[in-house]
Design goal:
Order of helices and strands: EEHEHEHEHEHEEEE
Structural class: alpha/beta
Radius of gyration: 15 Å
Number of helices: 5
Shape: globular
Strand content: 25-35%
Length: 183
């Protein structure tokens, strides 16, 4: 099955149940909001599923994109898709594993400008993973949480304060900014 992203590129998506790519209009809205801010950034796609948001970040000029996904078949597909869209000078890393375990012991990667967090909505990961995310962000960095419209998320997560929230039908995006100042 193919999925269109920026520049009319087509990505393959994992077959089967459980993978729910971020809807196209939500991805488009997200990158319109971030217009001009993604170029040369470091981006983490946490619980990346089909990897479409990480692929979009690469298409919008991110210097480095990392993705964490638990399913091995999805990781192989994400690796191939990101290789297809990455340009010279861009790099990426797909990490297979349980996000709770990986974040609990530390990723060993430099901090990110953006973390996009889109767990399976019914997996109960919001409460356990949100507190582990602030150390992953650079000062002034942004966490973007995809969730169901109407789902309540905290106003603050550690040093991160919710600064915006947008709904797109049944899907919503919450934006948290790292309160620590940029150096």
């Amino acid at each position: 099955m193919g999925l269109r992203i920026s520049g009319k590129r087509t990505l393959q998506t994992p077959a089967g149940r459980g993978t729910r790519p971020t809807p196209g209009r939500v991805r488009q809205a997200l990158f319109n909001i971030l217009r001009g801010q993604v170029k040369d950034c470091r981006w983490l796609d946490l619980c990346c599923g089909a990897g479409t948001v990480g692929a979009e970040a690469l298409c919008h000029g991110a210097a480095f994109v990392a993705g964490i996904e638990i399913a091995a078949p999805a990781c192989r597909l994400i690796q191939a898709n990101w290789a297809k869209v990455a340009q010279p000078g861009q790099s990426f890393q797909v990490i297979q594993g349980d996000a709770r375990k990986l974040l609990s012991r530390g990723l060993g990667l430099d901090p990110f400008d953006y973390v996009y967090f889109d767990p399976p909505h019914d997996a109960g990961l919001y409460a356990s993973l949100l507190p582990l995310i602030p150390p992953l962000l650079k000062p002034g960095g942004t966490l973007i949480v995809e969730h169901r419209s109407g789902q309540k998320l905290p106003e603050q997560v550690g040093s991160l304060l919710r600064v915006d929230q947008r709904a797109y039908g049944q899907t919503a995006l919450a934006f948290y900014r790292n309160l620590e100042e940029k150096p």
